[in-house]
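Whether sequence alone determines local backbone shape is best considered at the level of individual chains. When preparing material for the folding task, we compiled for one chain both its residues and its backbone structure tokens. No coordinates are needed to read the tokens, only the vocabulary itself. For completeness, the protein is quoted in full, as a sequence line and a line of structure tokens:
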Amino acid sequence: MNPIVRNVLAVVAGLFLGGIVNMGIVMVSSSVIPLPEGVDPSSMQSLKESMHLFEPKNFLMPFLAHALGTLFGAFIASLIAKTYKLKLALAVGVFFLIGGIMNVVMLPSPTWFAILDIVGAYIPMAFLGFKLSKLFQ
């Protein structure tokens, strides 16, 4: 297979599978750590209006969703890529970072969480995904 095509497919697969991991964790999160009473997680308006009710424990699962989704996506991209494995893993991290920044803008959260999420869940996890992929190559 052409290396360019393979690299493009690696990034697409990383984004798709990382997104599945992210959404899977988000979907089960309220059964692991219940949301405050009356919060509808399917409604952005409900989340905005009740953000003040969230405790630090309520931010654990969103952080894990972002971090593990990015980690897995970058891992997959780096495994599949023919060349530029680190750059492509980091590209996946940048895509997820952009999504994370958009999320912080659309759904205001405590400053500590926004900083932790933006700084810790994307680029470092993409780099770790790349490093982990080297164990399987």
In short: Residues 3-39+56-136 form one domain. Residues 3-32 form the longest helix (30 residues). The chain has a mean pLDDT of 95. The helical segments are 3-32, 44-50, 60-80, 85-106, 111-120, 123-133.
